[in-house]
Amino acid sequence: MVEERECSFCGDSIRPGRGKMYVKTNGEVYYFCSSKCQKNMLGLKRRPRDVEWAKTEK
């Protein structure tokens, strides 16, 4: 059985077969529920606690 993952940026759950898995060259793995989360974390280098719509606590 495939398990649900948690988005590395916003904390939403990701159903099996959805989202993206991003692996950095150092072996670190990120899971993203949408391209919005991926762009904010990797492209714009934002932290989840600085974005209002992310579920992380301040």
Automatic annotation (TrEMBL):
Name listed for the protein in its UniProt record: Large ribosomal subunit protein eL24
Gene Ontology CC annotations of this record: ribonucleoprotein complex; ribosome
Co-factor remark: Binds 1 zinc ion per subunit.
Family statement drawn from the similarity comment of this UniProt entry: Belongs to the eukaryotic ribosomal protein eL24 family.
Task of the protein: Binds to the 23S rRNA.
Gene Ontology MF, one: zinc ion binding
HAMAP family: Ribosomal_eL24
Lineage, uppermost ranks: Archaea, Methanobacteriati, Methanobacteriota, Methanonatronarchaeia, Methanonatronarchaeales
